[in-house]
Design goal:
- The complex is a heterodimer of chains A (425) and B (244).
- With 425 residues, chain A is an alpha/beta fold.
- Chain A is 66% helix and 8% strand.
- Chain A has a 6-stranded mixed beta sheet with strand order 2-1-3-4-5-6, sandwiched between helices.
- The longest helix of chain A is centred in the middle third of the chain and has 39 residues.
- The relative contact order of chain A is 0.12.
- Chain B is of the alpha/beta class and 244 residues long.
- In chain B, the strands form 2 sheets. Chain B has a 6-stranded mixed beta sheet, with helices on both faces.
- The chains are: A alpha/beta (425), B alpha/beta (244).
- Bound molecules: adenosine-5'-diphosphate (ADP) and magnesium ion.
Chain lengths: 425, 244
C-alpha cells in the first residue's frame, strides 16, 4: 500500500495544502486590513461636522480609528472613485449640520466601488463602523443640546430615532446605481458560489475522463496495437484530440447553459426583496450579455482543452490503474487554488508576488473570466486568454511529441520506483 | 530461402550507456515460426517493439518484407501485425465489434474487411460469445480473440510477444496449436517470444536464445539440443549462458 509514489503523492498534497493555506490567510489578512479602512469626504465645513469627525477618529471608550480624508471634485462618483483609486467613501454633504440644527433628518452618502463579487473584498467594516459612529455622534450632540433644554417636539422625537439617513450607491466599472453593495452580494451569492464549483467539477471531470481513457489504452496495450497498425500516429492522436475537443465543446456549452439557468433562477429568487433588481444589476453590467457568454464560453473551452492535453500526457505515464488515480493531482491543485481564492478574495488586489503566482496558474483566468467580463477588466480577460492560448499550444505540442515519438513507451515519472518485470519471475 | 525479416545489429539504450538489447541479429524465413527465447528482462519486448516500429532503434536496422524500419516504417506497418505482451482489448466493445473495428484499420476496402472478420470468427472459435462484451471474457478467450485479430489480415509477418503468458495449461496449449496450424495452413511467418523455453520447443521451427540483450545462439531446437548435448531447450539455455 505505502509505495514510494503513494507517499510522495501524500507529501505533495500536504505541501500544496499548506501553500494554498498560506496564500489564503495572507490574502484574507490583507482583505481584512483593507476592509477596516475609513475614507471620508467632508463637504460640510462647519464646527459641528468637525466635532463629529473628531469623535469618529477617537470615539469615547473606543480604539482610535485611522481615517483618510479625500475631496471629490464632482458628483460623478464613477469617475471620482476610479481616478482617486478609492474603494469606498462616506460623504458628508454640504448642509449636513444645518439640517441637524433644524431638527431634520440629515443624509450621508455611502459610495462603494465593486471590483469583484467575492465576499471578502466587498465587506467594508470600516465604513459600517464610520456610519454607526456618525449616527451616534449626532445623536449624542442632539441629545445634549435639545433634550436637556426641555421637552421635545414630535418631529424631534422622530428625528432622534434615526438622525442620519444613509444613501447608498454602488459603482461597477463605468456604471452606478442606488443600491447597497451588500444587496448585490446577496443577490449574486448563489451564482457566485455555484459557478466556480461548476468550473471545478468540469475541469476535474474532463481530466479524469481523458486520463482514464489514455491510461486504459496504455495499460491494455490497445494503444500499442493501434500504433503498430497501418494508420498514421498523427491521425490516431487527431482522433483522440478531436473526441476530446468535442467533449470540451459540449462541456463548455453545458457550463454556459448551467450558468444561464443559475443566474436567472437566482435573480427570480431575490427579486422579491428589491423590485427592479434585474434592472439594477443589468444597469451595473452585472448580468451577462450574449457577447459576454461567448467570451466566458471561449475561456472555458480553452481551459478544458488545456486540461485535456495535460491529461493526455499524464495518462501516457500510466503504469497501472491504481497509481493512475493520483496523476490527476496536478490538475486538481491547479484548479483548487484559484477556486478557493476567487470565492473569497478579489485576486486583482493581492500583493504583486502572490498575484502573479496565482495568474501563472492557467485555470485562474477561467475562474476570473466572469468577473473580468462583468467588471470591465477587458485587458485582464484578453491577457488571460492569450496566456492560456500559449499554454495550450505548448501542452498540445508536447502531447503531440509524446504520442508521435517513442516517448509514449519510454517516458516515466522520475519519482516513484520502477518495477521491473524481472521481479515477477 | 526468402527472408521475411532480417534483423541486423539492432540495439536499444533507454538510458545512455545502458543497453536493453545490443547487436541483435537474426532472420525469419518465409513460412517459418521463429521464437526469441530468454528470461524476463532479456530484451525480447524491446527488440520486438523496435521491429514493430514502436521504439526507435539506437543502432542497427531491421528489414520487414523488404522495408527498413528506419526509412519506411509506414510500409513495415502494412506488412505486420503485432500482439503486445499481456495485451487487452476495449472492454466495453463486443468481440465482434472489435474485430470489425480492427478489420477496418487493416483492410483496403469493405469487402476485404468483411473477409477478415469472417476469417477471424473462424480462427478464434468463440462462436456466439463474440456478441458479448470483451470485459466479460476470460483471459484465454480474450487472447484467442486478439490472436484471431492479428492473423485475419494475413500479414507477411505476425509478431506475438509472449502469446501464452498468463494462460492456464489448456488455453496455452490451444494457443500453441492455433499458431502451428495457421502457419501450416496459410504459410504465414511468425515471430514469437517466450520466457517458457519448454513450450517453445514444440511450436517453433527455429529459436534465438537471448540473454541480457544479446542473442547468443540461433538454430533449430533439435539442432541446438544436439549441439549442447542437452535434454531440452532449457538446458541448452543454461549451457549457452554459462559459456559466456
Ligand atoms: N521503458 C523502459 N525504460 C527503461 N528501461 C526499460 C524500459 N523497458 C524495458 N526496460 C529495460 O530493458 C531491459 C529489457 O526489457 P524487456 O525488453 O522488457 O525484456 P523482456 O521482454 O525480455 O522481459 C530490462 O532490463 C528492462 O528493465
Ligand atoms: Mg517482455
Amino acid at each position: 500500500m505505502l509505495s514510494p509514489s503513494t507517499i510522495a503523492t501524500m507529501i505533495i498534497t500536504v505541501m500544496v495544502m499548506i501553500m494554498a493555506g498560506n496564500a489564503m490567510s495572507g490574502a484574507v489578512d490583507e482583505a481584512e486590513e483593507e476592509s477596516s479602512a475609513i475614507t471620508i469626504c467632508n463637504q460640510d465645513d462647519t464646527e459641528f461636522t468637525k466635532q463629529v469627525l473628531k469623535f469618529l477618529e477617537t470615539p469615547a471608550g473606543g480604539e482610535k480609528n485611522d481615517v483618510k480624508y479625500v475631496t471629490l471634485d464632482s458628483d460623478d462618483y464613477t469617475k471620482e472613485l476610479k481616478d482617486k483609486d478609492i474603494k469606498n467613501v462616506v460623504i458628508i454633504p454640504a448642509g449636513f449640520s444645518e439640517k441637524i440644527s433644524n431638527s431634520e433628518q440629515a443624509t450621508i452618502k455611502y459610495v462603494a466601488r465593486m471590483t469583484s463579487l467575492s465576499t471578502m473584498s466587498n465587506v467594508s467594516t470600516g465604513s459600517t463602523n464610520a456610519m454607526n459612529l456618525i449616527n451616534a455622534a449626532v445623536k449624542s450632540a442632539f441629545y445634549s443640546s435639545k433634550v436637556q433644554s426641555g421637552a421635545l417636539a414630535d418631529k424631534e422625537v422622530a428625528m432622534l430615532e434615526s438622525p442620519v439617513k444613509v444613501e447608498e450607491t454602488t459603482v461597477v466599472a463605468d456604471n452606478s446605481q442606488s443600491i447597497s453593495p451588500s444587496l448585490i452580494i446577496a443577490a449574486t451569492q448563489m451564482s457566485n458560489m455555484f459557478l466556480p464549483i461548476m468550473v471545478f467539477v468540469l475541469v476535474l471531470y474532463s481530466s479524469q475522463m481523458i486520463l482514464n481513457a489514455v491510461a486504459t489504452e496504455k495499460i491494455d496495450k490497445t494503444l500499442e496495437t493501434l500504433l503498430s497498425a497501418p494508420v498514421s500516429r498523427l491521425s490516431v492522436l487527431t482522433a483522440k484530440m478531436l473526441a476530446a475537443g468535442i467533449v470540451a465543446g459540449i462541456n463548455a456549452i453545458v457550463y454556459m447553459f448551467g450558468m444561464n439557468r443559475m443566474t436567472s433562477s437566482v435573480s427570480n429568487l431575490t427579486s422579491s426583496s428589491v423590485d427592479n433588481l434585474d434592472e439594477v444589476l443589468k444597469n451595473l453590467g452585472l448580468t451577462l450579455s450574449v457577447g459576454d457568454y461567448v467570451l466566458v464560453g471561449v475561456q472555458m473551452f480553452l481551459t478544458i482543452l488545456i486540461t485535456l492535453s495535460i491529461s493526455l500526457v499524464l495518462g501516457a505515464l500510466a503504469k497501472d490503474m491504481k497509481s493512475t488515480q493520483s496523476y490527476i493531482l496536478p490538475v486538481m491543485v491547479m484548479a483548487m487554488i484559484p477556486y478557493m481564492l476567487s470565492m473569497f478574495v478579489d485576486i486583482t488586489t493581492l500583493t504583486p508576488a502572490l498575484k502573479y503566482a496565482v495568474y501563472a496558474i492557467p485555470f485562474t483566468h477561467t475562474f476570473m473570466a466572469t468577473q473580468n467580463v462583468m467588471f470591465g477588466n477587458t485587458t485582464l480577460y484578453w491577457a488571460g486568454l492569450a496566456y492560456q492560448l500559449v499554454l495550450l499550444i505548448l501542452c498540445m505540442g508536447f502531447a503531440v511529441r509524446v504520442f508521435t515519438s517513442d516517448k509514449i513507451f519510454t517516458m516515466t515519472l522520475s519519482f516513484g520506483k520502477k518495477k521491473h518485470k524481472s521481479a515477477e519471475e | 530461402m526468402e527472408k521475411v525479416l532480417e534483423v541486423k545489429g539492432l540495439s536499444k539504450q533507454y538510458k545512455k550507456g545502458v543497453y536493453a538489447s545490443q547487436g541483435v541479429t537474426f532472420h525469419v524465413n518465409k513460412g517459418e515460426i521463429f521464437a526469441l527465447i530468454g528470461p524476463n528482462g532479456a530484451g525480447k519486448t524491446t527488440t520486438i517493439r523496435m521491429i514493430a516500429t514502436l521504439l526507435k532503434a539506437t543502432e542497427g536496422d531491421a528489414v520487414v518484407a523488404g522495408h527498413s524500419i528506419l526509412t519506411e516504417p509506414d510500409k513495415v506497418r502494412e506488412n505486420i501485425t503485432y500482439l503486445p505482451d499481456e495485451a487487452g482489448a476495449y472492454k466495453n466493445m463486443k468481440g465482434i465489434d472489435y474485430l470489425k473495428f480492427m478489420a477496418g484499420i487493416y483492410a483496403k476496402d469493405a469487402k476485404s474487411a468483411a473477409e477478415y472478420v469472417e476469417r477471424a470468427k473462424e480462427i478464434c472459435g468463440l462462436g456466439d460469445r463474440l456478441n458479448d462484451k470483451i470485459g466479460g471474457y476470460s483471459r484465454g478467450m480474450a487472447r484467442k480473440l486478439l490472436i484471431a485479430r492479428a492473423i485475419m489480415p494475413q500479414p507477411a509477418l505476425a509478431i506475438f510477444d509472449e502469446p501464452t503468458s498468463g494462460l492456464d495449461i489448456i488455453n496455452a496449449l490451444d494457443v500453441r496449436r492455433m499458431i502451428k496450424d495457421l502457419a501450416a495452413k496459410t504459410g504465414m511467418s511468425f515471430l514469437l517470444s517466450s520466457h517458457n523455453m519448454l513450450e517453445i520447443e514444440y511450436v517453433s521451427d527455429r529459436v534465438g536464445i537471448i540473454a541480457k540483450g544479446h542473442v547468443l545462439e540461433v538454430g533449430e531446437p533439435k539442432e541446438l539440443i544436439e549441439k549442447y548435448e542437452a535434454r531440452n531447450l532449457e538446458e541448452v539455455f543454461e549451457r549457452v549462458v554459462k559459456q559466456q
